[in-house]
Amino acid sequence: MNPDYPLPMNIPQSFVIVFLAIVGSCVGSFLNVVIYRLPRGLSIVHPPSACPECSSKIRWFDNIPVISYLILRGRCRYCKTPISPRYALVEIATAVAFVALYDAFYVMRMHSWFGHFPLDLPIFIAHLVLVAILIVCSAIDIEYYLIDIRITYVAFITGLICWSITPVAKLAQITKSSVSAAVLAGLVGAIIGFIVRNILLSKKASSEQHEGEEQESFTSTKSQQKTNLSAIIFLLLYLAGAIVIVVSLVSANHSIESYKMRMWGYVVWLFLAIIAGSVPRRESDKEIVEVIEQEKSSARAVALTEFIYLTPIIVGFIVLWSVAKFIPTIANIFDYLLRLRFGIFAPVTGFAFSAVGILIVAGFGWAVRIIFTLVFGKEAMGPGDIYILAAIGAIAGPAVAILGFFIGSVIGVFGICVLLLWKTSRALSYGPWISIGAFVCLLGYNPIMNYLKPAVKALMVICTHSYK
User: Fold this and answer.
1) How many other β-carbons are positioned within 10 Å of the β-carbon of residue 196?
2) pTM of the model
3) Rounded (10°) CA dihedral 156, 212, 216, 277
4) What is the average pLDDT across 253-273?
5) What three-state secondary structure class fits 65?
C-alpha cells in the first residue's frame, strides 16, 4: 500500500481492489437496466427486472453479475429465450474500468493531484460515475446509433456537485488560476444565454421530440441477438482475462513497467467489449445509412441554424466577461463569490471549475461539428457526441475531453477497420471511441500531458488564461 495516503483503518489495498471489482460488476448490472429501458421509454426503477419474452420476474440468484449468466448458459430459466451476452459483457467491462481508475489514480499516481484520501474522494467518485455514464452511452450508441442526452445530464450534475464539495486544499491545487472573476462572470452570461436559447428552441424541441418518438418505435423492432456457444466461450475467456488483470494488480510490484502492461490490458479489454458489442449486424443499418445520405442536402443549412441558436450563449459569455474585465466594481463582486468559504469548502470555485470544463469542451465540439459540416457538406459530428465530450469535461476537465477526442479518433479508425471484417454497413457509432479515448487519457494522464506539454499549455492558455 502506498504510504502517502493511508486508507481508513489500514484497509489492505488488495481488499479495496477486489471490492471495487465487485462494486463495478454490480453497477454494471444496473447499467444494463438503463441500457435496455431508457431507449424504450421505460422506467429504470420500476417494475423489477423480468424476462421480456415470458414476463417472469428474475430472482435474486439469477441476477448475480456474470455468474448467473454463465450458470444459466445465457438463457431465461423459465422460457429458455436467449439473453444477449451484452449483459455479462457490460458487467465485466465496468468492473475492469473501476479497478483501472483506482490503479491509475491511487496506486500509480497518474494524476499529480490525485492520491490523497479522503480529500479527493468526491472527485474519484465523480470519475467512477463518469465511466459508468460513458459505458451506458456507448452501449446505447452501438445498438441504436443515438445517444440519450439525459444520461449526460447526470454527469453534468455529478461534476458540478462533486467539484463544489471538494475541500479547498485539494481544489486550490487543481484549479490553480484557471477560474477568475471575469470567467465566472462569463459563465453567468453563458447560463443566461443558454436559458434564452432554450426559449427560442421550445417549438423546435417539441417537433424533434415527436421525431424522436418515431425513431424509438423504429429501433425497438430490432431482432434480438441469439446467444450461442461461441458467445459463452468468448465471455468465459473475457472474464478469465479480466481476472488476470485484477490479480496482476494485486500481486504486482507497482513499477511503471508493470503498470504499462496493465494499462494496455485495461484498454484492450474495453476495446474488445466495443468490438463484441458492435459486431452483430442490425436490420436498421441500411435505413440509417439512407437517412444519412438524405440529410446531406440540408447539412449546411442545419449547421448554420445551430450556430444561430448558439449565438445567445456566446454573446452572453462575451458581454458579462467584458463587463467584469473592465468594470472593477463588478469584478470585485465575482471575486468575492470565488473567495467564499463554507468551512473547508469553496463551492463557487468548484462549481465554476466544472462549468468551465463543460463550456470549453462543448464549444470545441460545436465548433468541430459546425465548421466541418460547412466544409464537407455532411454531418461531421452528432450532437450526442458533443454531449458526451461535455460530460467528460464536467468531471475530468477540458484537457482529458479534447485529447480523448483525438486519441479516440485514432483508436476508432483501427476499430472500424476491425469491424469491417464482419460488417458491410457504413453506419458506425462514434460515441464509444470518444469514451475509450478519454479513458486512455485518464489512465495515462501524466505521461501524455508531459509528452504534449507545450501544446497542452498553449491550448489551456488560449481557453482559460487569456480571459483574464
Assistant:
1) 16
2) 0.86
3) -50
4) 87
5) coil
